Amino acid sequence: MKKKKIVVAITGASGAIYAKVLLQKLAVLETQIQDLAVIMSDNAKDVWRYELEDESYKDFNVKFYDKNDFMAPFASGSARYDTMIIIPCSMGTMGRIASGISNDLTTRAADVILKERRRLILVARDTPLNLIHINNMKTITEAGGVICPAVPSFYSKPKTLEEVAATVVNRVLDLAGFEVDSYQWGEKETN
Ligand SMILES: Cc1cc2nc3c(=O)[nH]c(=O)nc-3n(C[C@H](O)[C@H](O)[C@H](O)COP(=O)(O)O)c2cc1C
Question: Pocket of ligand 1, candidates 8, 41, 43, 130: which has the most ligand atoms within 8 Å of its Cβ, to mutate?
């Protein structure tokens, strides 16, 4: 299996725990990864501190890029990053991607991934949805992106908030092409 060059962007939607669980799982999957780059918006840092009551994103041994660093390698298609995951993805960031407004590194990197026809996964989070959100989801889907809403499942009987978040994160890892051992309906029972 070819090792992945992957960008993870964390935005200011509710659900910092999804980003935390993803970063934990990517650390375990490091043998499948060539490069892992992480971007956080200012709101993402605020929401992380508010919801998780810590700054544990600083504990992950990953390369963080400033949200305005347009010199980052994945701001250009020639760097050949193959996958980008935005988790959680705010409606604001989704709207800017759908409109092609590449005014920060996250939206520029997403624009690049779409133009290079590579895999973009948006773990969109808000409820309820208005027609603008729904149209933006349609636009991004038509452009080749995958909308994977932050909607957990419960048939694996998760016991903790981390296990609930993992029901979404495992789907994301699967969509991103990682080989993961997670619950499959009708098969084994693990998180
Ligand atoms: C505690 C908190 C929770 C939020 N939850 C959401 C949410 O679930 N979805 C959303 O689209 N925006 C949410 N927002 C608003 C976004 O943070 C805001 O729209 C911001 O401009 C998004 O910017 P970013 O995409 O650059 O991070 C939340 C804000 C706060 C403070």
Answer: 43
